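Following up on my earlier message about pyridoxal-5'-phosphate. Here are the inputs again, as you asked, copied directly from the submission form:
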Amino acid sequence: MRATLPPTGRPQADILADLRAMRRDDVDWKGGRSPAYMFQASEAITALGREAFLEYFSENALGAGRAFASVKRMETEVVEMALSLFQAPEGAAGFMTTGGTESLIQAAQTCRDYTRAARGDPRLNGNIVAADSVHPGFDKAARLMDLEVRRVPVTADFRADPRAMEAALDERTIMLVGSAPCYPFGVIDPITELGELATRRGLWLHVDACVGGYLAPFARMLGRDIPAFDFSVPGVASLSADLHKYGFCPKPASTVFYRTPEMARHHWFDFKDWPSGRFVTSTLVGTRPAGGVAGAWAVFQHLGIEGYKRVATDLFAFIDAYKARIRAMPGLSIVGEPHLAIVAYTAADIDIYRVAEEMSKNGWLPGLLRRPRAIHRMMSMPHAASVDAYFADLQAAIAVVRSSTAGDSTLQAQYGGR
Ligand SMILES: Cc1ncc(COP(=O)(O)O)c(C=O)c1O
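Thanks, got it. Here's what our run produced:
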């Protein structure tokens, strides 16, 4: 039955009660049972982001440059603070967007238009040579702009393979991509080597730090072994980093940066031939919530460098213990050597998807990896709070699967959904 508008309006209290009741069927993310989609450092930081978002609930960041000086100021400051964090040189520029996918699409478009101008070929579409582990946002960009994505297999340690990527280049290549880290394996690609390749071949290197950009710098400050991934690496032309992931800011908020003003110039959409005059935007979308800008600004101001280091300290205490507990379980092993807070593990003697199936009976939404078959989780503090329950259920699920004669699971790995 198709839903229809209620013929008469309903009281607010009923509607709000409905909203709360409908949640009953959702995954218990606060209880750590969602393997992705959600990020939380603490209830207090979420509450601050929410309050700041609601303060700017009605304003439209599309009008930041003309109508809302406050939004413009916050956006500029967020970008500038991030440029410092990513060791960007003088003259580098950046923009806020509404998410990682939008940042990737815009970086691809900016690279294409810059390369068209640089090569004097205004019709060049070209190809993007990327590690097989890069996010499908690049394939979405390619679909929109008629580009080709050449996915190159990763090495045995699940990282990008610069030599194999070089072999995939041709005269129509416009962009190289590495991740910091990639979503499937949580490992940071060898960005220094990719930077050397980009410099040697005169190509644009994009670093997709969407998922780890706002965690990796603090991990490094804490002395953890984090390979260079930002503008300190020669050859990195652009970088994307999501505020709404490990920046712990409210959705929707991401950032994208360019090494030089000449590159950043091509990011803008500037249409002059319209009855309403000139139409200028820095995002793919037009109207966008100013709340995302205010939320990010507020969380940055509240946490500062010390605050982010404190959050990272707590998160890594949990992640290190989590990895140790997985490794201590007979038959289980971690996929690669994940650098941050994405961890995938597999089993030698049983089908790990069947374990995920058993776990789902207790409300743990399966997060799966396809190559190799593994259980995958992108974790933050709700996962820490529920870790003992997780391992109790994991142990029980493994015992059920080991004692059963059923065949492989028919579960399918999936990230988004219809
Ligand atoms: C490495 C990487 N890049 C890009 C994205 C896309 O981000 P969004 O879902 O905000 O569009 C993700 C999402 O998980 C990601 O892991």
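One observation from looking it over: The chain has 13 helices and 13 strands. Hope that helps, and feel free to reply on this thread.
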